[in-house]
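User: Structure please.
Assistant: Input sequence and predicted structure:
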Amino acid sequence: MIEEWLFVKDEYIPEKESNKFIDKSIISILKVLSRIRRGGIKRHKLVYSLNPALKVFFTILNLVLLSLSRSFIYVLVMNVYAFVNILLLDTEERNNILVISLIIPLFTLIMLIPSMLRGNIVNNLLLLQKIIVNIILVNYLSYTTKWNHITKSLKLLFIPDLFIWVMEITIKYIVLLGEYSVNLLYALKIRSVGRNHDKYNSLSRIIGNLFLKSKQMSEEMFSAMECRGFVGEYTIQMKFSFKKADLLYCIVNISLVGIFLVTNYL
């Protein structure tokens, strides 16, 4: 005999609740992950095919010279150079860089207002321009160069292996832990039927779970690398190609170094 209550239609209607916080968190993580993964997509524009070692070297050099310079003319020239660079990118990437390079200096400007009101206008404007150029140059490098090419280039530039190892592992684990956290957030969203008053406590448990997972993965990776004989030293096999576009890129950047010397020391 089947019980009668089994034939009764379930009329349970869960209370509606907004999951905006979870949705926004998932979208934010997915955006970061897609941005890292897009580094592997092959682009057809010339700026994406420049030699990565040259791009890394001249980007670091330009950042150093910018920090040393006290010349308005040099910083202005670097501003023009940076904006020309981003004009050569795809529309979406260009817009992303422009938004970042305008929002972050805006906060800096707000903090510098008291100093500007005291009459220190010139130095503050110079500092503001330097921040904008730095943000554009670093983003230009990250958008136009694959992460694995950057690590290879750092090895060519005699950067210590420990620094390269930490940077490379960090980028890889951002992707792995990002995927893991997205799955946890989806699980929380599915289990939050109706009104879940314990949702924010669940988020804190997700963060704790993520920390334990990262610890476990780091121990597993360390053991795996030891088993494979990794002793913390990187060896690279990279063909150093040099095209006409690379020559033009070198000429432009060497000219910028010349402008730095002329405007600051002559």
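Residues 161-191 form the longest helix (31 residues).
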